[in-house]
Structures are given as structure tokens and as C-alpha cells.
Specification:
- By secondary structure, this protein is an alpha/beta fold.
- 45% of the residues lie in helices and 13% in strands.
- The longest helix is centred in the last third of the chain and has 23 residues.
- The site of pyridoxal-5'-phosphate (PLP) has 15 residues, from helix 5.
Length: 413
């Protein structure tokens, strides 16, 4: 019996169920991944006991000598990984990293130009119910209807018309590489600041496989738990000249004590991403996504923009007579986890949109390669082609269970 099992059998049992779910199914949620056993270990340590308000060498609590070392290593490694001058590794999440930048450079009522949620942007890019939509005046750009790629003519003309103080690049559901240089040019032409939210593709940037926004952006924000494969958290990169103002916004501006155990997990994740094997992993994520995309397309599913350059694809399932909600539920019954998602120019509603979003970062961590993706593609098609047939889903689930357990999940014996 583990200590947890003994003390709190209900929570222990739910965690055991979740371990099993993560092992026997196919995790294709584009924003998820499996951290390494080392990251898990760091995140589950006594560091959770420690208060450390402030920054290394400037704390409001005693006993911070060891956490100073940990946070300093996390900062140095983040800078090394992305070629940045300065890193704040304290934001608890990607949303808080974005909030930190907005509150550092904007006043309430200022204008931001960011990607439309319905075209792939994130809630923190100005959605009306999010703090970003409530505090700021938001103008949205999107993708062209013809090829579903970012419409830089629109970005430029909206920038000229609305003179935003901040332009936000980056997205949650955009399957193509983002040309940061084009955003930087537009921002420069109107004297705006540029923030790049690379949350989804920060692992691909770390591996040198996607354009590094640090070269051209004033601020770069990210989560650490998607393609980057760290603990669930966030961070911000910027130039040295912005460090003091940014730090003050994170603490005491919007947070109290950092989650030191998670900062340690981020330090480990940056260390792992600096190793040569990480580049191979990131390349495999992209190769797997390309093969899975081809496999779905050959089964009659239309993909937004026709394919993918990164770890994710947006599949329009209306082409095979389904909605995103029905597709998500059918796949779930078969042990395939995805999320329903709006596709650009969607005629349907967010709670039952036309698409599903599919990502390959997590399966790639388990060691799956191109041939495995072809099998995964076939299973997806089989389930979707008989979405209301529970027997088909049950049969696929059994096949998947047998298949998936052959690919270990880090940290689960
Ligand atoms: N930015 C982007 C582009 C995202 O996709 C996400 C999360 O999905 C976030 C920010 C927010 O991250 P979190 O959920 O950690 O607040």
C-alpha cells in the first residue's frame, strides 16, 4: 500500500484510474504531452513546502538558498535554450505569462491586435469573457478563407487603422509555421510592441525546427507543458532592459509565491530540451503529424489549410457527415482522446463545431513513429465512419488497448 492509498483511498483510486486511462488510450489532445519521469519527480518533491516570494538573491522569506539555485538554473537554461537575454520562470500558467506581459506594457483601454479565437487564437488573446477582452480594446485578425493561412494583408491594414499598442502573434489551433518576421515588420511600421505566444510550438522552436520568435519579438510567452514537455506552467522571455518591469508585474503584481516544485520541473524540462535527443523527438512530432494528416486526408477528411507544418491538425469532420462534438464522443468511446474545435469560417457553434483538433506530441513521447501513425489514422477513420456504432468503437478500443500498452508512459510502470 502506498502512503496516499492509505491516507486518502478515494484520491489514490482516481489517480490510479487516470494512470490507466493515460496508458491504455491514444492521447491526441494537441495541448497535452507526457512529462519525463525526471520532471514528474522534481514536481513531486518537498519543494512544494517552500515559500519564496521575490527572486533569487532578493527574497521575502528565509531559507531560500536552495530554491535560489533552482530558479537561477531554470532562468539560465531557458535563456540558453531560446537565445534570450532574460527569462521569468515564475508564471503559474500560460495565461498568467500573457497577463504579466499585458500588465507590463499596457494600460486598461489600450488596443491589442491578436488572432481571433474562432480562427485559432487563445482565450487570452482578447476573448470577451477573458480578462484580456475585458481590460483592453481588442481587434482581431484571422486566416484567409481561401487557404486558411494567416492573412498578413489584413494584419497590416488592421494595424494601420487601429494603431494597437501591442500585436500578439501565436495561436492554439493553427497548423502552420508562424512567420514571426512578418509580424515584427508590421509592428515596427506602426511603432507597436510585439508579443509572441509560442505556447503550442515552443518545443519545436527549442529544437530549432520552427522560427525562433526571440530574435524579433519584444516579449515571448509560453506554456511549458505542450510540445516542450515540461510541467503544467508558463514563462516569459524578453530583453534585459524589460526584466525589472516584467518581474515586478509577475511578483508582486499578479502572483505571490512561485510554485517552486514546478519551477524545478521547468528547469529539468529546459535541461532535457537542451539535449541532442530532444531535437530528434521534436522532428518526430512533426513527421508523425504529417503522416497522420495524410492518412486522414486519404480517408476523405478535410484538414484546415490542407495539412500541417507542426504538431497539430484541424480536421473538418462535416465532410463525412459528423459534427466535432459527435466525432469527439465517438473517438472517446474507442479510447482516442481529441477535442472538438472550431475551424476557420465555421458555420457551427463553439459547443458543437465542425472540427476536431488532433496533435501528435504525446504519442511521439511514447515512442510512436510513422507506421504507428498510419494505424492511428485508420482507427480514427474506422470510428468516424461508424460514429453511432458502439460495437465498432468497442472493438477499436480493445485493439488500441493492446497496441498502446506496448508504448510505455514515462513515470508509469
Ligand atoms: N496561450 C496559448 C496559445 C495556448 O494555447 C494556451 C493554452 O492552451 C495558453 C496560452 C494558456 O495556457 P494555460 O492553460 O496554462 O493558462
Amino acid at each position: 500500500m502506498t502512503t496516499l492509498q492509505n491516507v486518502d483511498p478515494e484520491i489514490w483510486s482516481a489517480i490510479e484510474d487516470e494512470k490507466r486511462r493515460q496508458t491504455v488510450g491514444l492521447e491526441l489532445i494537441a495541448s497535452e504531452n507526457y512529462t519525463s519521469a525526471a520532471v514528474l519527480e522534481a514536481a513531486g518533491t518537498v519543494l512544494t513546502n517552500k515559500y519564496a516570494e521575490g527572486y533569487p538573491g532578493r527574497r521575502y522569506y528565509g531559507g531560500c538558498q536552495h530554491v535560489d539555485e533552482i530558479e537561477s538554473l531554470a532562468r539560465t537554461r531557458a535563456c540558453q535554450l531560446y537565445g534570450a537575454e532574460y527569462a521569468n520562470v515564475q508564471p503559474h500558467s500560460g495565461s498568467q505569462a500573457n497577463m504579466a506581459v499585458y500588465l507590463t506594457v499596457l494600460q486598461p483601454g489600450d488596443t491589442i491586435l491578436a488572432m481571433d479565437l474562432a480562427h485559432g487564437g487563445h482565450l487570452t488573446h482578447g476573448m470577451h469573457l477573458n480578462f484580456s477582452g475585458q481590460l483592453y480594446s481588442v481587434v482581431h485578425y484571422g486566416v484567409r478563407e481561401s487557404d486558411q493561412r494567416i492573412d498578413f494583408d489584413q494584419v497590416a491594414s488592421l494595424a494601420r487603422e487601429h494603431k494597437p499598442k501591442l500585436i500578439v502573434a501565436g495561436a492554439s489551433a493553427y497548423p502552420r509555421e508562424i512567420e514571426h518576421g512578418k509580424f515584427a515588420e508590421i509592428a515596427k511600421s506602426i511603432d507597436a510592441l510585439l508579443m509572441v505566444d509560442m505556447a503550442h510550438y515552443s518545443g519545436l522552436v527549442a529544437a530549432g525546427l520552427h522560427d525562433n520568435p526571440v530574435r524579433v519579438a519584444d516579449y515571448v510567452t509560453s506554456t511549458s507543458h505542450k510540445t516542450l514537455r515540461g510541467p503544467r506552467s508558463g514563462f516569459v522571455l524578453t530583453r534585459e532592459e524589460n526584466a525589472r518591469a516584467l518581474d515586478r508585474t509577475v511578483f508582486p503584481g499578479i502572483q505571490g509565491g512561485p510554485l517552486v516544485h514546478i519551477v524545478a520541473g521547468k528547469a529539468v524540462c529546459f535541461h532535457e530540451a537542451l539535449q541532442p535527443s530532444y531535437r530528434e523527438y521534436a522532428q518526430q512530432i512533426i513527421d508523425n503529424a504529417r503522416v497522420l494528416a495524410e492518412s486522414l486526408t486519404s480517408g476523405g477528411i478535410r484538414l484546415a489549410s490542407g495539412g500541417t507544418d507542426n504538431h497539430l491538425m484541424l480536421a473538418d469532420v462535416t465532410a463525412i457527415g459528423l459534427s466535432g462534438k459527435i466525432a469527439e464522443e465517438a473517438l472517446d468511446r474507442a479510447g482516442i482522446t481529441v477535442n472538438k474545435n472550431m475551424i476557420p469560417y465555421d458555420q457551427r457553434k463553439p459547443l458543437d463545431p465542425s472540427g476536431i483538433r488532433i496533435g501528435t506530441a504525446a504519442l511521439t513521447t511514447r515512442g510512436m513513429k510513422e507506421d504507428d501513425m498510419r494505424r492511428v489514422g485508420k482507427w480514427i477513420l474506422t470510428v468516424l465512419q461508424s460514429a453511432d456504432d458502439h460495437t465498432v468503437a468497442d472493438n477499436v478500443r480493445q485493439e488500441i488497448e493492446e497496441f498502446a500498452t506496448g508504448f510505455p508512459v514515462p513515470g508509469i510502470e
